[in-house]
Amino acid sequence: MTDDAVPAVPDHHRAAAPAPDLRASDADRERVAEVLRDALAEGRLDMAEFEERLEAAYKARTYGELTPITRDLPAATAPAPVSFTKEPVEKGSWAARIVGGEGSSTGGVAIMSGFQRKGRWTVPKRFTCLAFMGGGEIDLREANFADHEVEINCVAIMGGVQVTVPPGVEVVVRGIGVMGGFDHPHDDEPPEPGAPRVVIGGFAFWGGVAVERKVTRAEQKRLKEERRMLREQRREERHELHRARREERRDRRR
């Protein structure tokens, strides 16, 4: 081998393709949308196909759902190669939100009153609360976590506790209800890689513990704005397509 020869890269050192069940980012969905827009402009897709695929792209949650959308389109339609490589994200990731330590609050008490734990706070490994003829609110959507698994122990006697968790977090409900109950989150989904596990237990007598899965208000606002922009973009693309068809018909008549 000469001095300037470049050795072959072993297979185990090459970047592996992401797993189909890996979560896709907004940037990944937008890159696929760019490919679809170029394909529409070049006549590779008609308007109905474009709208159907674009909607599927923005709804896709994993790489396995994104990949088939552009599989039959040549790479030349994209202004740049579409990369499905997951870039590391530190700020706001689950790894950044599991901070260790003791937690900023270890419990809450509501006796004919109420308590709240919401916003930026650190959930300890074990959080204990009591609601007696009162109510409590535990919101984990913007919280950090002291450990990969945290336990929330609730005692609700003629009262109630509302627990709100963000999407992607695994939730296990183990509470016991006597003339009361523990609700499981609706629209449950597989947990995201690296997300914490929240175990909710305790006892409810003539009361209840409700568990709800919701995105943050900022995320709700972002999704609403994204849907509005998507509707406007679709409307503009339909107008542009109709304009091109009218010009084509005029050219044929001439």
Instruction: Please state the structural category.
Output: alpha/beta
Task: Give, in order, the helices and strands.
Answer: HHHHEEEEEEEEEEEEEH
Radius of gyration equals 25 Å
The portion of residues assigned to helices is 25-40%
The biggest beta sheet is recorded as: 6 strands, parallel
Low-confidence stretches: 1-17, 76-89
Q: Number of helix segments? A: 5
User: What proportion strand?
Assistant: 25-35%
Give the CA-based shape: elongated
Mean pLDDT: 79
Gap between N and C termini: 67 Å
Query: What's the number of extended β-strand segments?
Result: 13
Describe the structure.
By secondary structure, the chain is of the alpha/beta class. 29% of the residues lie in helices and 25% in strands. It has helices spanning 26-41, 47-59, 63-66, 94-97, 217-253; strands spanning 107-111, 114-117, 122-123, 126-132, 135-139, 144-145, 149-157, 160-165, 170-173, 176-178, 181-182, 197-205, 208-213.
Provide a quick synopsis of the model.
The protein has 254 residues and is an alpha/beta fold. It has helices at residues 26-41, 47-59, 63-66, 94-97, 217-253; strands at 107-111, 114-117, 122-123, 126-132, 135-139, 144-145, 149-157, 160-165, 170-173, 176-178, 181-182, 197-205, 208-213.
